[in-house]
């Protein structure tokens, strides 16, 4: 298969989108732009949008005719979209990771991927190669003066926030040990305990798992300085992709997952393909006290979690004696097995994400669960000023249909108090990515903009869509000069 080509995939009669439109997003990014000025193809860029949207996701999916087994194994490619005075420009760069540079030179994959990409030569040539390929492809955030490209199983890569030039792996001024895991899901505390912070974690997992909880200042000259640090060890394997914060707690859901590493060791599967839902264990909520809160120095508290698997949480808050957390639950761990082709996913056969709310009672230890919406969703957020508090509004990506699984084609504003919703749809030929809500200076929780990169199956390229956060009315569409594969996470940096 030639570079940048993608296999044709068939559409099921019951689907209301063309599979080839969805899969056409999966191609190698073959251009890098610097300060490319963007024009609005529709509408106008809001004049009060002042800052930079950073996006991360897999940008290299094929080498020498070999495709990654799962797009999550694609090398990280950062896109920045800078907005100022009604104008926007785009810069994009691959993260120059050690593995990316080596594979560029070799012209082929020379590392295995966690999600099943193997080196050529079958199990024999993959067995006992347990090196981790840090692909820096999951999220991108600014901490102090470092733009960090994040991948949860290893340390971050540091980039220049404007040029996106790669400086190299960062140990965050000595905070991280060589190779130490650093989550791709930091949470930005807007200042619950009188100081805005970036709260994040790293997990060292095994039969026992240790969570290192870290809090960094994000204010003034201290931005990037570690101000809080604790380690707690729990029984069991812990697959922790995300977490949530409240003023007093860091809230984790330890999924009921078993890990059988043998197929990975013997070269038959990627490490993440060795995860499966546990038949014997229950998931657990792990509540770790934050050092800035009123339970500082106390031990963690553990509660039984409902069945299901969670990658992402929406938000958490405290209410009387309860910690409340909203999360996207799957009824099983979604994986792509060695004999499956990700381009031919049958959406009907893989579990969909359902938004649920769990109330954890700290006094009687009861946990109750409520479904908030049955519509398949992912990538949900609240107004960042409401993080850790009881927020009314949320914005998320959803399938177009009301029930069952499907590709993400809608942006939904969802009222968490009364279930009212607004929908903006890119269907039938468009496919959305994570929406980022950018608040204005107004005190109304839903005043602001929603930014999302949309795969345009007609143009075979990506668009940046700007919506009014209040009613999701379309503000502007910018046609990007890039074809960006379906991506992962990003962030907004004001100013
Ligand atoms: Fe994530």
From TrEMBL:
InterPro entries to which the protein is assigned, alphabetical: Carotenoid_Oase (IPR004294), Haem_d1_sf (IPR011048)
Reported cofactor(s): Fe(2+)
Any one of the GO BP annotations: carotene catabolic process
Residues that, per the record, bind Fe cation: 185, 241, 312, 489
Gene Ontology MF annotations: carotenoid dioxygenase activity; lignostilbene alpha beta-dioxygenase activity; metal ion binding
Enzyme class, first EC level, given as a word: oxidoreductase
UniProt source species: Prochlorococcus marinus (strain MIT 9211)
EC number: 1.13.11.43
Family: Belongs to the carotenoid oxygenase family.
Protein name: Retinal pigment epithelial membrane protein
Alphabetic keyword roster: Iron, Metal-binding, Oxidoreductase
Entry's cofactor comment: Binds 1 Fe(2+) ion per subunit.
């Amino acid at each position: 298969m030639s570079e940048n080509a993608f296999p044709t995939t068939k559409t099921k009669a019951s689907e209301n989108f063309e599979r080839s439109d969805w899969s056409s997003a999966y191609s190698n990014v073959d251009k890098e732009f610097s300060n490319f000025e963007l024009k609005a193809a529709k509408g106008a860029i809001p004049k009060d949008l002042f800052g930079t949207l950073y996006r991360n996701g897999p940008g290299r999916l094929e080498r020498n005719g070999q495709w990654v087994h799962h797009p999550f194994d694609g090398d990280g490619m950062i896109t920045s979209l800078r907005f100022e005075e009604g104008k926007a420009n785009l810069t994009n760069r691959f993260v120059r990771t050690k593995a990316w540079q080596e594979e560029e030179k070799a012209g082929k994959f020379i590392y295995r991927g966690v999600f099943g990409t193997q080196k050529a030569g079958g199990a024999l040539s993959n067995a006992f190669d347990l090196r981790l390929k840090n692909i820096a492809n999951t999220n991108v955030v600014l901490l102090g003066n470092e733009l960090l490209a994040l991948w949860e199983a290893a340390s971050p890569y540091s980039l220049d926030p404007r040029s996106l030039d790669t400086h190299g792996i960062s140990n965050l001024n000595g905070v991280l040990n060589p190779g130490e895991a650093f989550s791709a899901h930091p949470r930005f505390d807007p200042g619950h305990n009188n100081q805005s912070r970036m709260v994040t974690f790293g997990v060292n997992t095994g039969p026992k798992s240790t969570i290192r909880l870290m809090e960094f200042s994000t204010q003034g000259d201290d931005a990037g300085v570690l101000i809080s640090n604790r380690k707690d060890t729990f029984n069991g394997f812990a697959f922790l992709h995300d977490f949530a914060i409240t003023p007093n707690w860091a809230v984790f859901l330890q999924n009921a997952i078993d890990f059988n590493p043998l197929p990975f060791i013997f070269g038959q599967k990627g490490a993440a393909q060795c995860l499966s839902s546990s038949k014997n264990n229950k998931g657990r909520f792990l509540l770790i006290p934050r050092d800035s809160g009123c339970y500082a120095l106390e031990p963690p508290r553990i509660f039984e979690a409902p069945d299901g698997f969670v990658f992402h949480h929406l938000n958490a808050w405290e209410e009387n004696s309860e910690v409340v957390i909203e999360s996207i639950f799957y009824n099983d761990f979604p994986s792509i097995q060695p004999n499956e082709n990700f381009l031919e996913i049958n959406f009907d056969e893989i579990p969909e994400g359902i938004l649920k709310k769990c109330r954890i009672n700290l006094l009687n230890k009861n946990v109750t669960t409520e479904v908030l919406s049955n519509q398949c969703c992912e990538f949900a957020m609240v107004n960042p000023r409401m993080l850790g508090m009881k927020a009314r509004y949320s914005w998320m990506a959803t399938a177009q249909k009301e029930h069952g699984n499907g590709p993400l084609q809608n942006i939904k504003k969802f009222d968490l108090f009364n279930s009212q919703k607004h929908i903006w749809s890119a269907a039938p030929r468009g496919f959305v990515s994570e929406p980022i809500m950018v608040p204005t200076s107004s005190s109304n929780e839903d005043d602001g903009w929603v930014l999302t990169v949309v795969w345009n199956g007609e143009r075979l390229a990506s668009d940046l869509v700007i919506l009014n956060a209040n009613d999701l009315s379309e503000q502007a569409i910018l046609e990007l000069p890039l074809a960006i594969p379906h991506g992962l996470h990003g962030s907004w940096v004001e100013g």
